[in-house]
Here is the input.
Amino acid sequence: MNDDQFNTLDEKIDALVALCAAMKQENQLLRASQHNWQTERQQLLENNRQAKSRLESVLSRLRSMEQSQSA
Here is the structure.
């Protein structure tokens, strides 16, 4: 191999190393984003569960009031 070929190979290796570093950083950001979305999803599911529970309680009281008025 001559010097030009070595230089070309060296440049390609440097580019590959830089690409790997960039991909590693992007992967870390994506994992953090995924964690945030999962946390937010769990919070929304919990909020939904609480709202459903409150709504069922209100409906039960309304039915109870309706039955007492009918009697």
Observations:
- The first helix runs from residue 3 to 70.
